[in-house]
Amino acid sequence: MFLRLLLTSFLICYVQSKEDIYDLLSSIGCSSFGNLLQGTGYMYRLGDDHSGPYTVFAPSDAAINNLPPEIVKIFNFGNWELAFDIVSYHITKDIFLLASLQNNGLYDTMLENSQLRFNVYPKGNSKVHTISGANITSPDNTATNGVVHVIDRMLYRFPEVYTTQYVHEHQNLSKISLLIDKGGMHDQLKAQNITMFVPNDEAFDAAPNFNMTNLLINDTAIANFVSSLIVNSVYFTADLVNGQDLFTSQGSRIRINVSSGNITVNDSGISQPDLITKNGVVHVINKLL
């Protein structure tokens, strides 16, 4: 009986909508994303009632208006292939209503070998839903050929690398990379669904009473240090709230403070937030925790 009611409500939801995805975008505040579909050919797919079904994570007009200049240039000056890839990264095949998305679930996009990560977290008396770090601000806008979830920023494809690889590939993270190598921490940094607060090299240089040489000769101390930077769940900045406590895999507590949109982790700022990896997210911080 429950399944019959669930199916009935699902079908009613779709009967109520008479617009295809492309036409729906203009009525839910995503006209600018609709314009991007024109330039990449997706207008014809998403405007066809017999195509799909699709789930689209569509940036709002405000999100498109706030794009960095280098991204605007891609769409305005004819880098068709890259523009096509960016748009494809916002579209999945099949219908995924908000209630069907699983926390830490990975969803294949129309861009080959690329996935989006969904997360849901409590925030006060409500919940925050994110897709690869972007807030879902208006979910379940149904169309004749799928569903649109409005999000608050554009999504970009990130390298398909594990956290350990991400750290090794960036020159400003050379000191934590050395500790990961010396402590044999690679497997821990390939575990699924982790958040890592990664100090940059400047954080090590500025830390008073920190002795890198002494740390390097003690593998146990290295393991404790690196583990104190790892949280065994995925937290994008959109999921962090003032006064929140996160507990690391080493057992220590990290206090989150949010003030006027600025986030600090203990007393460290986040210089590079929401760096997506194959198994979670990295936030580069400017002080040691």
UniProtKB/TrEMBL annotation:
Domain FAS1: 17-155, 160-289
GO biological process entries: cell adhesion; extracellular matrix organization
GO CC, any one term: extracellular matrix
Signal peptide: 1-17
Keywords for the protein's UniProt record, in alphabetical order: Signal
Gene3D superfamilies assigned to the protein according to its UniProt record, in alphabetical order: FAS1 domain
Pfam families membership: Fasciclin (PF02469)
SUPFAM superfamilies for the chain: FAS1 domain (SSF82153)
PROSITE patterns the record matches: FAS1
Superkingdom per UniProt: Eukaryota
InterPro entries in alphabetical order: Adhesion/Biosynth-related, FAS1_dom_sf, FAS1_domain
GO molecular function, one term: cell adhesion molecule binding
Protein name per Swiss-Prot or TrEMBL: Transforming growth factor-beta-induced protein
